[in-house]
Amino acid sequence: MPEDTVIRALTGFSTRNPWKVIAVWAVLGIVLTALSSTLIYRVTQNQTGDFLPKTYDSAAALKIAEDQFGVKSDANTVTVLVARPDGKALTAADQQRVGAEAEKLGRHRVTMPKPKDGGPSFLLKDYSQTPRVTPAMMAPDRSFELLSAELVGNSTAPGMQDLYRAFRDDARAQFTDAGMRTGFTGGLADTVDTTDAGETASKITSMLVIGLIVLLNVLVFRSVLAALLPLLAVVFIGGAASGAVVGAAMLTGIKLDPGTPSLISVVLLGIGTDYLLFLLFRFREQLRAHPEQNARTVAGEVSGRVGNAITSAALTIVAAFATLGVASFGQFRVLGPAIAVSVLVMLLGSLTLMPAMLAAAGRKMFWPSRALKREPRPGSAARLGDLVARRPLMMLVASVVMLGALSAGLVGIRMDYGLHNGGPQTAAATTATEISRALPAGVSDPTSVFVTAKDGGTLRSDRLDALSQALTKVKGVGQVGKTTLNQDHRAARIDLYLTADPQSQQARDLVSGPVRDTVAAHTPTGLTAHVGGTAAIFADISTAVDHDLKIVFPVAAVLISLILLVLLRSLLAPMILMLSVGLGFAATLGASTLLFQHLLNKPGVAFTLPLVLFLFVVALGTDYNILISDRIREEMERPGPARAAVARAVRHTTPAIATAGLVLAGSFASLAATPSSQQVGFATALGIMLSAFVLSIVLVPALAALLGRSIWWPVRPGKHASRHPQHHTNVPTQERDRIPSY
After folding, report:
1. In terms of CB atoms within 10 Å, which of 3, 43, 116, 209 comes out highest?
2. How confident is the model over 169-191, as pLDDT tens digits?
3. Taking the complete model, does pTM exceed 0.85, yes or no?
4. Most confident region among 85-99, 273-287, 575-589 by mean pLDDT
5. Exposed/middle/buried for 721, CB within 10 Å: 0-12, 13-18, 19+?
6. Where is pLDDT greater, at 320 or 588?
């Protein structure tokens, strides 16, 4: 096939010129890593509402806020609480002092500190600015006064976070000198406090994941190079992939979600290590079988053969995530292509850099192990292969029963659109709690109603009095602010302070129901009103996600099936693989629902979980299915019974799949250390484990043993060779002696 020729051309060139290929990837990896780590924050969008299509109500409200009221899309409001240290009510003199200090704070330019990592500062965006500080509200009991400070910039950028820390420290010192205590809350404050609280845990988790990969490789290969080269290769390729994603985003003008870079890193670490493990296991196997053959020649042959399976696996991932391009929610729509691009770069690296490393290292790759000099004893993998081949129906039923039991957890599943996921009690959260004791919970994050005239004419605030009065009667609206007109009186804003946390389900239900109903019923004729704010945005996101799930799921399933149909050249095998990974997806989501929704009493599973889990489990889980299927087909092309071929395939492939599964699951499990991605980390790790240890080495081989060569219908490999079972080419003598005849 043409793609086979291309794969063998790439792997052949790389194994013939290993040091040139390694040098090119090293330069690309180092240079692009430095550039992408600096420029990534220029192509990320931290305002979730900007990912919504403009047809949604909250997106229309954002547009009016930007165009008519000058609200910047990357503006961050920091709420500053000022109170007396003794807890007593603020006096008139205290209020004057607070006003004077706030005025000075609003005139002081905050300079962004220099980066701590010593990176290329000339590429960094300078966020230095003079914040806009205005009085916000006084507590009814005068226990504190709130100030509103606006800082403009990407809240996920390290430079912007350092700027906030400088502002916070300056404000705290200034008010302390004036005899006052301070507290800070809001989106930016909460982001920085959460980052600071989880910094140590994140570093420890990353070190543990890397340690896990090295330890597994050492235990499996008993080699220093085989333990470290996968990480080195992934670092080089991952750096180039990050650069490609950032470059593509800058060229196209798209904005990425802030969580995309970390997710890409986890994906590349997992699948990159997986692909090199596939090569290493097959390389070692062939070196044992052909000790007289040149190691570089073996590297070329192995890379060309395994390269087909790696290409198939990578393309299924690309196809799965590319389907997110049809999603209406922008956060999904940019995530898919970003991961697809990075996986394509990893595929290129797997067909060039990884074969080059095998060719350059040769037999030294497995030093000081002596495993190449002796035939391994039949181990647990061989026993599992024999069991699956002898009792395929029993193993099939056991697998389906276990997966079905886990799938039962889907009964009563609920989606949780909340942002708070049980993270640490930060200083920002403590300040927000203190504010909510005296004022509505939404006072630092109001829900706003924006009103414009349909003919573009001017407005009078008194025309909206009836609307304001109606909103005060809505249960759950704690307070309604005064109607504010923009400079040319062509737009009006009414702020609502909800009694519920704006990020809670209660607030979303309130905004999407009674608030919007009231606005629709009491907006004067000739005027148009839109409801915006955090609660409104996430209410619309829930609608967009529900819509996207109904489209992306079937499109991804059909596209992956078509790719498998072309790659496997079979009608039946792709159906079996898709049914198995579908069952694995249902089992994983069911188990996650049981844990988080029922056992841990969470409001539900994270709203992004079903889609992300579907793509990762179906796409990455299919990797292992493709690997075992490719080996089963190869073994069935040899003479002998089909069940014997299945036994050999399981024996040779199980160590690679088991090791790769543990590595990939460990990589995704690292996400669980971050509260916001805890569910995604747990669920993807579990899904990968089920895919590797249940679907790929038990369920799929059991079906292959039951169906025999018919699984590859209409082209059945080796269908005539089975008449001559005495010939087992390229099979070691010890293995031929123990191959069962079925």
Report:
1. 43
2. 999 999 999 999 999 998 889 88
3. no
4. 85-99
5. middle
6. 588
- Is the Cβ–Cβ distance between 675 and 424 less than 8 Å? yes
**Sign of the C-alpha dihedral computed for residues 54, 56, 61 and 65 taken in this order:** negative
Q: Tokens 């002796």 map to which residue? A: 374
Q: To which residue do tokens 């209410």 refer?
A: 539
The H or E element spanning position 447 is strand 447-453
Burial 395-423 (b: 16+ CB within 10 A, else e): bbeebbeebeebbebbeebebbbbbebeb
Contact indicator for 582, 638 with CB cutoff of 8 Å: no
Cα of first residue to Cα of last residue in the chain, in angstroms, is 33
* Cis peptide bond upstream of 230, omega within 30: no
Who's near 156: CB < 8 A, 6+ residues apart? 41, 44, 46, 191, 258
Rounded to whole angstroms, the Cα distance separating 285 from 302 reads 10
Phi (first) and psi of residue 528, to 5 degrees: -120, 135
Rounded distance, CA 503 to CA 539, Å?
10
- The CA distance from 700 to 621, in Å, is 12
Q: Name the amino acid, one letter, at 87.
A: G
Nearest to 32 by CA among 335, 359, 349, 354: 349
8 A C-beta contact, residue 639 and residue 724? yes
Count of positions (residues) in the chain: 742
Question: pLDDT tens for residues 52-87?
Answer: 888 899 999 999 998 998 888 788 899 999 999 998
Q: Which runs of E-coded beta strand occur in 111-200?
A: 132-138, 145-152, 181-185
276: amino acid identity, one letter: L
For residue 558, pLDDT beyond 90? no
- Structural element, H or E, at residue 503: none
What gap in Å lies between CA 80 and CA 75, rounded to an integer? 16
CA dihedral (163, 164, 166, 171) positive or negative: positive
Decide: helix, strand or coil at residue 128: coil
CA distance 392 to 386: 10
For residue 192, which amino acid is it? V
**Whether the Cβ atoms of residue 514 and residue 471 lie closer than 8 Å to each other:** no
Residue 224 and residue 682 in contact, taking contact as beta carbons nearer than 8 Å? no
Q: Which helix (H) or strand (E) holds 547?
A: helix 534-568
Interacting residues of 263 by C-beta distance below 8 A, sequence separation 6+: 335, 339, 671
Sequence-ordered strand ranges (E) for 526-581: 527-532
- Given a contact cutoff of 8 angstroms between Cβ atoms, the answer to whether 668 and 275 are in contact is no
Residue 617: closest CA among 335, 380, 270: 270
Taking every pair of Cα atoms in the chain, the longest distance, rounded to a whole number of angstroms, is: 102
Predicted confidence at residue 98, as pLDDT, reads 93
Q: Return d(Cα 382, Cα 375) in angstroms, integer.
A: 13
Q: Which residues of 1-14 are buried (b: 16+ CB within 10 A; e: fewer)?
A: eeeeeebbebbbbb
Determine whether 497 is exposed, middle or buried from the number of CB atoms within 10 Å of its CB (0-12, 13-18, 19+): buried
**What is the CB neighbour count within 10 angstroms for residue 106?**
15
